[in-house]
Amino acid sequence: FHRAANLYFLFIVVLNWVPVVEAFQKEITMIPLLVVLIVIAFKDALEDYRRYTFDKRINNNITKVYSRKHQKYTDQSWKDVRVGDFIRLSCNEIIPADMV
Questions:
Q1: What's the pLDDT score for residue 75?
Q2: Of 6 and 47, which is predicted with more confidence?
Q3: Which residues contact 88 (CB under 8 A, 6 or more apart)?
Q4: Which of 14, 17, 71, 79 is the most exposed place for a label (fewest CB within 10 A)?
C-alpha cells in the first residue's frame, strides 16, 4: 500500500472485524478498499502497457552500427546493438541511457 488512503481503508476493514467496534457489515467495509485497489491496478496496467509500447518503438528505431565484416556502417535496429559495437550518432539523435 503506497498511499495513506489505502492504509485508512485497510484500518477501517480491520477495525470492523473486531466485534466490539463493528459498525457495518464486514463485507461492506471492504468495498471502498477493493474499489481503490482495482482502480490503482488498472492505472498501473495502463502505464505499463504504454511503457511497453514506447520501449518497443524505441528498440525498433534504426541506427548506424560499424560492421567489421563489411568495413562500413550499416543500418541496424537498436535491439540488435551489442556491447562493444561502434555507433555513429547524428546531430539531435536520441541516445539511449545504457549507451553512455
A1: 93
A2: 47
A3: 63, 64, 65, 66, 73
A4: 71
